[in-house]
Amino acid sequence: MFIQLSRIRPFMALFTVLLLSLSSNAFAIHGSIVIKDKVSAAAGGVFTDNPTNPSIEISIPAGALEKDAVLIVKKIVPTNPILAKKIGEAQSPAFKISLLTKVIKREHIVLVPVTILEPIKIAITANPLPIHPQIGELARHTGGWKGTWQRMMTNFYHPSTGMVASLTKQAVIKLKVRHRTLQAASGPAVERGKDKYFNKTWGAEVMWTDRYHLNQLLQVVVPFDPTAPLDAIR
User: Fold this and answer.
1) Does the N-terminal peptide bond of residue 51 adopt cis geometry, omega within 30 degrees of 0?
2) What is the pTM of this model?
3) Among candidate residues 77, 67, 86, 57, the one with its CA nearest the CA of residue 165
4) How far is CA 105 from CA 102, 108, 109, in A?
5) Do the Cβ atoms of 63 and 44 come closer than 8 Å?
6) What integer pLDDT is reported at residue 90 of this predicted model?
7) Residue 101 near residue 112 (C-beta atoms within 8 A)
8) Which residues contact 64 (CB under 8 A, 6 or more apart)?
9) How far is the CA of 136 from the CAs of 87, 132, 189, in angstroms?
């Protein structure tokens, strides 16, 4: 029995190594570095992969970082269908943005995420551009590779550049552009909201008549008098 186990153990070890190798390869990320630059905490700066035709642009205000850092931006490249499915539908490449600073741990210099004191702006070019009723938004990945993509709370689309921007205080973040289609709604709730928006005065008539007596003032003011001071300035 001892001889049989001693013969099996090498095969079991080899099988374990192969299994771990296949598992790690299934979720491996190959990233091509598109930005790698030093960032001065005092000066900040704007960093992009291509000044004339940027795919990603990162704006760091002066004083936003606690310490000087290194900015590393990688374009996430799927190595297999499993990873491609994890990245999901997108209207831009997925990027991993890292702001790292050097610290000494156990007599070794290591890179750790820097503390961000003020939000930095990250903008990614949408391709294709959103067309109404679509809106361009940035989505971030949460929860490891078993997690999900969730849209950022703040999103700004710049039609002049075709870039979607958001603010964040995360030193390490994965982002991509994802279009969201606005949905039209109808029904009683919509009609009630429409009536309030167009017809409800919210008590404005009470404030302007009972408190400020604007209705009485307008009856005695000559129409061109209110603009006379402005005309004199001109």
Assistant:
1) no
2) 0.67
3) 57
4) 10, 5, 6
5) yes
6) 84
7) yes
8) 41, 44, 116, 117, 118, 119, 120
9) 17, 10, 27
Alpha-carbon torsion angle 63, 64, 67, 68, nearest 10: -80
Give residue 15's Cα distance to chain centre: 42
Query: How far is CA 131 from its chain centroid?
Result: 20
Q: What are the strands of the beta sheet with 120-125, ordered from one edge?
A: 45-48, 56-60, 120-125, 163-168, 156-158
Contact of 35 with 73, CB cutoff 8 Å: yes
Instruction: Indicate the domain borders of the chain.
Output: 30-181, 188-226
Return the bridge partners of 9, or none.
none
Q: Is the peptide bond before 128 cis (omega within 30 degrees of 0)?
A: yes
**Tens digit of pLDDT for each residue in 170-181?**
999 999 999 998
Measured distance CA(153)–CA(138) in Å, rounded: 9
* Helix (H) and strand (E) counts in the chain: 6, 12
CATH number of the 30-181 domain: 2.60.220.30
Name the residue type at position 43.
A
pLDDT in tens, 2-12: 445 455 555 55
Rg value, the chain, Cα: 29
What values do phi and psi take at 151, rounded to 5? -70, 145
